[in-house]
Amino acid sequence: MTNSQSQQPDKKDAADLSYLYDFICECPNPRITEAMKKLVDHWLEKTTTVPQLTSAIKEQLNATNEEVVEICWLLAINPNTPPSVLKDLSIGGDSKLLERIAENSNTGAGTLAQLSYQAVAEIRIATASNPTTPLASIMMLVSDDNPDVRFSIAENPKVPEGALNVLKDDDNPYVKMRATTTLARLKLEEHLQN
């Protein structure tokens, strides 16, 4: 495999750069905006050779470290950033960036599963709060040592009832109360729909 082939993102992401237009419109730094416009224009001329975004930011934009951090941050919080780009951003990202990626509802299941193993509790809390976190990760986080992680699951009405049923018997009274409250809310919503 050549170096250019190993840098290819998901083909769908290469063809659809619309998330970058949102980024360009929202970016507060005019230098970054202009550089990204040039990069996107270059990519549109050669959509088959779109490199991974973080590599392009570092290599092609000649961005300062502060600008790279700003670009990565803005992409991590953008709800239109594709899952493969968020996965790319998560590799080697600092804890605050990983927390933003874990919060993004567009983050892929594999990336969320990896983030659920992070040592920093805030990343696990954000992962537990994401409605697209895989069931296996949620069930693992139900027994997390940090009560704030368990509380985050207990207040999430999108998690399976099985996870909430485990948490309604939690040792921590706040987690227990929140899980019981969330279960009651779900039952009330179900009753009102019928």
Task: Note down, in words, how this protein is organized.
The chain has a domain at 1-93. The chain is built from 14 helices and no strands. It is 68% helix and 0% strand. With 194 residues, the protein is mainly alpha-helical. Mean pLDDT is 81; it is low at 1-11. Helix 6 (65-77) runs parallel beside helix 8 (95-103) and helix 8 (95-103) runs parallel beside helix 10. The chain has helices at residues 3-6, 11-15, 18-26, 30-45, 53-60, 65-77, 83-90, 95-103, 109-115, 121-129, 135-141, 147-154, 161-167, 173-193.
Write the layout of secondary structure elements.
Layout: H1 3-6, H2 11-15, H3 18-26, H4 30-45, H5 53-60, H6 65-77, H7 83-90, H8 95-103, H9 109-115, H10 121-129, H11 135-141, H12 147-154, H13 161-167, H14 173-193
Describe the structure concisely for a colleague.
The protein is an all-alpha fold and 194 residues long. The chain has 14 helices and no strands.
Low-confidence region ranges: 1-11
Beta strands, count = 0
Number of helices, where a helix is a run of at least 4 consecutive DSSP H or I residues: 14
Name the helix and strand elements from N-terminus to C-terminus, one letter apiece. Answer: HHHHHHHHHHHHHH
Biggest pleated sheet: none
Mean pLDDT: 81
End-to-end separation: 56 Å
Instruction: Estimate the global geometry from the Cα principal axes.
Output: elongated
Labels describing this entry:
single chain; 194 residues; mainly alpha; 68% helix; elongated
